[in-house]
Amino acid sequence: MKNVSVEELERQSIELRKKVISMIHKAKSGHPGGSLSAADFVTALYFREMNLDPKNPKWEDRDRFVLSKGHVCPVQYAALATLGFFDEAVLDTLRQEGSILQGHPDMKKCPGIDISTGSLGQGLACGVGMGIAAKKDNRDYRVFVVVGDGECQEGEIWEAAQTAHKYELDNLVVFVDNNNLQLDGTTDEVMPNINLGEKFKAFGFDTYEIDGHDMKQIVDTLDRIRMRKNGKPKCIFANTVKGKGVSFMENQCGWHGVAPNDEQYEQAMNELDAQLRKLDLRKSA
Amino acid sequence: MNEVKKATRDGFGEEIVKLGKLDNDIYVVDVDIGKSCKTGEFRKELPKQYLNVGIAEQNAAGVAAGLATCGKVPFVVTYAVFGSLRMCEMIRQEICYPKLNVKIACSHGGVTPANDGASHQSIEDMGVLRTIPNMTVLMPADYNSAKKLVKAAAEYEGPVYLRFTRDAIPVVYPEDTEFEIGKANKLKDGKDVSIIANGDTVCIAMKAAEQLEAQGISVKLFDMHTIKPLDADAVMECVNETGRIITVEDHNIMNGLGSAVSEVAAETGKCIVKRIGIQDQFGQSAPYERLLEMNGITVENIVDTAKALVA
């Protein structure tokens, strides 16, 4: 854990959003919607919560990060580059031939990726395996897994959840990015996720429902659970807005997997810059 | 000679305990059929290295992948039909794509779970997994080679699929025979026709070779325990020295050993290949020998096929 203020994290999350938009615009493909909905808690994890060493990405005692909704990797790549896992210029190579920044995270190509993902529903089981390894080896690292709400329609998520309970993985923290949208429409239209947070609770998780864009709530919740070694896995059920931070992308299912054109890119960057200026004003006031 | 019969799943069950005691990073991940897959001893002797994740194979593959990223060498243990098809895409995405050190060790290969019927008889598994990059696919021919190949799989760094028999099959190798992944074992040299078999069909092919020799037909015989990476040198030897190959497998004739051998042989333009195996049809509850018969996996059919080829 690093001592970083909520304000600094808020600023960082906007910087990450700018990098996300810029990468996807340059690549002319990628998934902006979910990258933006996850941006705030991803920021809190990478810049405050997780114990990592960018100079030694395979450090055995590092906290693990599993992006089960692997298609939103631009936000993870932006965080890794900012922290120095690789040069920021590499962000311009997203989805290009030969790039370490594949369309979905590749642990063998990109430093800082703990497991290759991209096929939905599979990351939580991998995180459970990592959590079990930590317990077996008496190591203190924790495992943070990000799953999408749509992704929870996959049965394997629940197989993994019951395993987390059985092996008392209080070192496992699952973030549900509850943005209510998936590729084909709203989750209610496609497949209603009835009481999703309650389901995690029923599977034996300590569950905390938060506003996934309220940095203070994110940080406070992480503070609360950090030392909670009670034998129960944790679920932070984060209510989010898909496309958060770019007005015309917010709550638009159409922005799941589409890149902005030049004009949209300009507008998005202007909006995010305006948010940064607003933070500055708040600070100087 | 008195024929000793043992199931190859027993060879796995015994060897994995030995390996686990030597290396505490070796784990078993069971999915509630551990008793049947012979991990009972491991569970008892090495509880710290043992997990049972319930009837949830997809999750087992993911958990194993996660363990492997932390330096463990997990063996996911189940039946062949589940360990290949039920968790196929998890094997592809989380194990083979990142080339993690996970082993999938499966009992009930081929039609050996005979009385269980078609749902449990695994006739597509080796073929399906053979097409995934980074995967190694093997089936030992008997109890002794099973032990050796389990050890070889544990020592190899990367994904391996191992297939064992549910039922007892003849022990064909002396205990001290050595085996190497990807290196076919030559059981007999000959010049008229080659037989390439694997798994539980090796003992059948051996009997056929004996009969053929008695009838004046010289047979080269290989145990191709690894179908991926295939020992192409062994196949080329058959092509160059006999020009006629018969493959025998307890697996669909599509995509398994016969296909793998044909792929190499066809590109030479110098060899004819006849495939004996499951005739692209589901099985049923029946005695093991009857199921083999229904598909022509018999000493007689191998002998007749060889004679027709040589004529």
Short description:
The complex is a heterodimer of chains A (285) and B (311). By secondary structure, chain A is α/β, with parallel strands linked by helices.
Question: What attributes does this structure have?
Answer:
heterodimer, A: 285 residues, alpha/beta, Rossmann fold, 5-stranded parallel β-sheet, two-stranded antiparallel ribbon, 9 helices, 12% strand, B: 311 residues, 7-stranded mixed β-sheet, 5-stranded mixed β-sheet, 13 helices, 14 strands, globular
Can you put this structure into words, describing what you see?
By secondary structure, chain A is of the alpha/beta class. Chain A has a single domain (6-284), classed as Rossmann fold (3-Layer(aba) Sandwich). Chain A is built from 9 helices and 7 strands; from the N terminus they run ααβααβαβββααβαβα. Chain A has helices spanning 6-27, 32-49, 73-83, 123-136, 155-166, 187-190, 196-202, 215-226, 262-284, and strands at 64-67, 143-148, 172-178, 181-182, 185-186, 206-211, 234-239. In chain A, the strands form 2 sheets. A 5-stranded parallel beta sheet of chain A has the order 1-2-3-7-6, sandwiched between helices. In chain A, strands 4-5 form a two-stranded antiparallel ribbon. In chain A, helix 1 runs antiparallel to helix 9, helix 2 packs parallel to helix 3 (73-83) and helix 4 runs parallel beside helix 5 (155-166). The longest helix of chain A is centred in the last third of the chain and has 23 residues, at 262-284. Chain B is of the alpha/beta class and 311 residues long. Chain B contains 13 helices and 14 strands. Chain B has helices spanning 8-22, 34-37, 40-45, 57-69, 80-86, 88-96, 125-130, 143-155, 202-214, 232-242, 257-266, 288-294, 299-310; strands at 5-7, 26-30, 50-52, 73-79, 103-107, 136-138, 160-163, 168-170, 185-188, 193-197, 219-223, 226-228, 244-252, 272-278. In chain B, the strands form 3 sheets. A 7-stranded mixed beta sheet of chain B has the order 3-2-4-5-7-6-12, sandwiched between helices. In chain B, strands 9-11-10-13-14 form a 5-stranded mixed beta sheet, sandwiched between helices. The longest helix of chain B has 15 residues, at 8-22. Chain B is globular. Chain B starts with a strand and ends with a helix.
